[in-house]
Amino acid sequence: MLEQSDLQSLEENLPFWKKVSDDERKVLMDGTIRFTHGKGAIVHDDRNICTGLLMVVSGQLRVYIISETGKEITLYRLFERDVCVLSASCLIRNITFDVHVQAEKETTILRIATDSYQQVGKTNPFVQDFTNQLVSSRFSDVMWVVEQVVFMSFDRRLAMHLLEQAAIAGQDSFAATHEAIARDLGTAREVVTRMLSRFQDDHLVSLSRGGITLTDRDGLYALT
Amino acid sequence: MLEQSDLQSLEENLPFWKKVSDDERKVLMDGTIRFTHGKGAIVHDDRNICTGLLMVVSGQLRVYIISETGKEITLYRLFERDVCVLSASCLIRNITFDVHVQAEKETTILRIATDSYQQVGKTNPFVQDFTNQLVSSRFSDVMWVVEQVVFMSFDRRLAMHLLEQAAIAGQDSFAATHEAIARDLGTAREVVTRMLSRFQDDHLVSLSRGGITLTDRDGLYALT
């Protein structure tokens, strides 16, 4: 059962909410369930191609793809108020790939069932418009990943990633394993370890078990 | 002035053509111009963000991005009957990147002006729907590039590329410079030269000035 705060989340974060009829709104509400996932939980994977739209109420989601051999690359992250549309990719004609979604912290989401969303979207152009805008946004996010992977040297990518992680954490020290950074950047753990050691030798970062502290932000910025 | 064959192209390749009003069709026709570009010509670049929709009547277009330092990677190719939508990216909210488009052969296109397309698209849902389907298709194409770049070894990518080029050429021998392959795959020319030499040593291909002949298709398939 949805609480009043959930309805408020839907209303605030779905731009079409006030432009659908009462009946349509009821269909959407009846199709929405709140879930809380623990840190590390897989919220959506490519065996469930239509989990539905996921709106982040609190916490943080990582959207990524995974190869046959288990290699990963993070496409983008979703934070409070963001909506994941690729977890409902069956809704979108011509999307032929699928993504995985993992909770990076304890994360509460509102999941709008694909059927309900599709039913309202079929007749309501504002809903369709929202879907299409989300798809274009994610396309732009992925193009940014392409540019990084193809055009940027690894030291630059790693420096950008560390600055971004510090921004997310809100401080210079944050938890991060070399393994997790490798998954984000689509590379091997050894490559991350080697470059982080070089950064430490250059006094840009200080490494500890399971954590990283930025010790020279300006130096890292200079690399980017 | 459009010829009868141009109108036929529009009718056959734009699924909304029969679902727009006569007035809307006239707006689209008045906004459409036929161009023929020589081999190698730049049809659209990121300084002209809204060239318009490009429909390929004959020939072949390459859609790619280019870095500040001039490095390139090909995102996809467009052939007869294909429509390029990213050359009209100002039409699409939340598309924050821009692409370049080059004619790889002498190529005739019909260019539908952004203004005309936008005018009809504003009121006609079939036109919007077509735009959105094109965007999703290209998004899927780009995800395929991401998977290749991040997950596949370079020998595998090069083998796939050579088989694809032979398929496009319709024969085992085709014109290709190491430079052009490097631009397609987003890597350096030296990397291509080194791997092609290895392929030649392994009797998979035979190299000549400006051209490549596949001499062992099965061997190349085995690599992919």
What's the total helix number of chain A? Answer: 8
The CA-CA distance between the termini of chain A, in Å, is: 47 Å
Strand neighbour order, sheet with most strands of chain A: 1-8-3-6
Overall number of structural domains of chain A = 2
Q: What are the low-pLDDT stretches of chain A, counting only 5+ consecutive residues below 50?
A: none
* Text of the CATH class of the largest domain in chain A: Mainly Beta
Question: How is the CATH topology of the largest domain in chain A named?
Answer: Jelly Rolls
- The mean pLDDT of chain A is 93
Pair with the most extensive interface? A-B, 34 and 34 residues
Q: How much of the residues of chain A is beta strand, in percent?
A: 15-25%
Shape label of chain A:
elongated
How does the major sheet of chain A shape up? 4 strands, antiparallel
DSSP, total strands of chain A: 11
Instruction: Bin the helical content of chain A.
Output: 40-55%
Identify the quaternary structure here: homodimer
Structural class of chain A: alpha+beta
Proper CATH architecture of the largest domain in chain A? Sandwich
Order of helices and strands of chain A: HHEEEEEEEEHHHEHHEEH
Write down the Rg of chain A: 19 Å
CATH homologous superfamily of the largest domain in chain A - what is it?
Jelly Rolls
